From TrEMBL:
<protein>
    <submittedName>
        <fullName>REXO5 exonuclease</fullName>
    </submittedName>
</protein>
<dbReference type="InterPro" id="IPR036397">
    <property type="entry name" value="RNaseH_sf"/>
</dbReference>
<keyword id="KW-0540">Nuclease</keyword>
<dbReference type="InterPro" id="IPR013520">
    <property type="entry name" value="Ribonucl_H"/>
</dbReference>
<keyword id="KW-0694">RNA-binding</keyword>
<feature type="domain" description="RRM">
    <location>
        <begin position="471"/>
        <end position="545"/>
    </location>
</feature>
<dbReference type="GO" id="GO:0005634">
    <property type="term" value="C:nucleus"/>
</dbReference>
<dbReference type="InterPro" id="IPR012337">
    <property type="entry name" value="RNaseH-like_sf"/>
</dbReference>
<dbReference type="InterPro" id="IPR035979">
    <property type="entry name" value="RBD_domain_sf"/>
</dbReference>
<feature type="domain" description="RRM">
    <location>
        <begin position="566"/>
        <end position="644"/>
    </location>
</feature>
<dbReference type="GO" id="GO:0003723">
    <property type="term" value="F:RNA binding"/>
</dbReference>
<keyword id="KW-0378">Hydrolase</keyword>
<dbReference type="InterPro" id="IPR034922">
    <property type="entry name" value="REX1-like_exo"/>
</dbReference>
<dbReference type="Pfam" id="PF00076">
    <property type="entry name" value="RRM_1"/>
</dbReference>
<dbReference type="InterPro" id="IPR012677">
    <property type="entry name" value="Nucleotide-bd_a/b_plait_sf"/>
</dbReference>
<dbReference type="InterPro" id="IPR000504">
    <property type="entry name" value="RRM_dom"/>
</dbReference>
<dbReference type="GO" id="GO:0004527">
    <property type="term" value="F:exonuclease activity"/>
</dbReference>
Amino acid sequence: QEKSCRLSAALLGEDSEISQEQLFELLKYAALGKCHNAAQPSWCRIYHQSHLAGVVVVVVHEMSQLHFYRFYLQFKHLRRVFRHRFTLTPSANFPVSLYGEGTNLKPQNTPQGLTSTSCECSTKSSDLQCDPIIRRYGGKKQGLTSYTLTLEERKKNDYPIEGSPGCKGYISTECDQQRTDSSPLFGLDCEMCLTAKGNEVTRVSLVDARGQCLLNELVRPESTVVNYRTRFSGITKKMLLPVKTRLSDIQTRLKKMLPHDAVLVGHSLNSDLQALEMIHPSVIDTSLLFARTEGRRFKLKFLAKAVLGKEIQCEEKLGHDPTEDARAALELAQFFIEQGPTKVAELNLEMLLTAEKLAEASQNKAVLQPQGCGFQEQLNEPPPLSKPCFLDCLQVTGQKPLLLGRQGLDSSGLCQSNLSTSNKQILQRALEDVPLSKFSIIQFSLGPEHIASHLHAGLYEKVRSKLTDMLTIYAGPFEENFCMKSVKKEFERCGPIQSLTVVTETFQPYVCIQYEVLEAAQLAVESLNGAEVAGSCIKVQRPVTAAMLDCNVLIKELELDVENEGVIYVAGLKKSLTETDLQEEFSQLKDLETLFLPKDLQSGKHRNCCFLKFQKSQSAVDAREAINGWTMKGSELRSRNALASGHLWRWIWQMNHSSGKQGKHIFYEKMEQLSDSEQDLRKKVKKLDHHIKKLYRSLQNNTLCVVLFPGVNSTHGSQSGLGLMGIKDDEGRSAC
């Protein structure tokens, strides 16, 4: 019989905030497992990972933890299915971290009916628009004149320019700029040694358009050689001893050999021309031709292998062969001109480079660092601007994840990407394609970004205000000279109090109490309404506002929330009790799994309540009944079902202590009409919840499913994200 996979995570209180790195730990282990040296995540545990049927990540863009709880009742499926929930540390580049540096966050108007591809080294035309080669040259084939550098480009890239201050004494090839698409191409490459003067040419090679070598000459430098750079140049002291050819001789020969419309081709050709002290107006630089982002450049050795299928600059050879390099640069330019930018972009060179680096790193890092040279020096490339994205890790296994969505987020080619025009279309594609993929990322969106950003402006205050109302109770009436100390003591038995004030606007005194946890306020309503406190029979109720009309429904749904299953709240503890004391006191309770003792996140002091999580729901029910009426160290305990035991507890505490109006409430306020945009958003959220439900039900058993609300970073502020996760079991729920 097939083993069932299981996910275990103790996400209570302060342990419930997870960073992106911790999230990627989980996804990496789930996708790769021990056979690829992936480690169990530090904050949760997957049992029988090798039996996982697949991993599905659902990303709901433009949404945060705030949105989930604002529309909590609409997310009926999510809150009833996913047992594990965590706060996701906010980040401005969550999509970049997951998909890679080519991320484009703008929605695309893409025609329907796009088909997927399983080709490992190609990219669909819909994804090519983000490719730097297409952005620079367009997609159509053009003649060679379209790829020669302009005067401004030569100045920008440090090419010798006629009349420039730094080019005094330089020799011009005397070629004019009357080049055409039929002008002859010549490949040029030089090797240099370091002398007292700087870099001086010690070898020059020139090849014609057919690759035939026209010039391959050693050159004696004018100044004393400081470093022959034999490892790269191949030049030794012995080789230069008999050489009589000087730089001026090479300059003269090149002037005679090059026709008036010659186009020179080379890789970082500016360095060669600077060393030759020559000026030539028509050049194609292959390090710029095969464009990358952020000013980075591909290495000639890599381009030769990836584009031409040729191995150059082999380790067994002593130094570089300039003729080989000149010929490789020439053939690269010819390939680009003949095939056109689109064909070159479809090679997806960035993905090939990533795969090559990972393959080399996984074989032996030590091999990449001979003679004290670092990895980046070996590759002869600038240091990377950011860490590899998470999807890079899957390249080691040859896996190519499925990426579905309405946003063109993956221009790196690491995924089988499909763009769709609606959530409904995304769902249909997911139902067809997810069963065929071991790792899938499904992106949903609520529509135009301006809707989410417009609502976000007032969303935080609405949610904070509603939570404050739910944490607040009014008690009374009391006698004129009632004892406030007795009232505080009685209500404190329900849980930690944030503030306690006397309401003086009424005929008889009332007390307004704001608690720190939802369970305390609810316990006060349930146990003290109609009770005698401080000599008065009192009524306990919450504020009556438009937002609070569905409070009872919300409380009931929170109790039924799968995250709170098997968890109870216990109040009335003495603050002097430590976690060890409580573990000992509650050790007799059957199936007790975890104890969480909340503390003030500023002072670090423990509160007078705790949460107990049990392995079985019935054990939690039995414990709750047993605890009610218990006396511990002279204090009577009270207990009820948990409402916000996990990540929500920490978030409520933070919102409760944020700036804004607190404590004072109006009993009756004018009923506000929901704006059309918010009504529309509620409908969209409900439909989105239904889409995720349908997708989840279609998944195979033993599939890990993670739903992510990445968080919001906008001009209105930053909001933490939210993650929900579970492994689907036979009953269609997430296995704990």
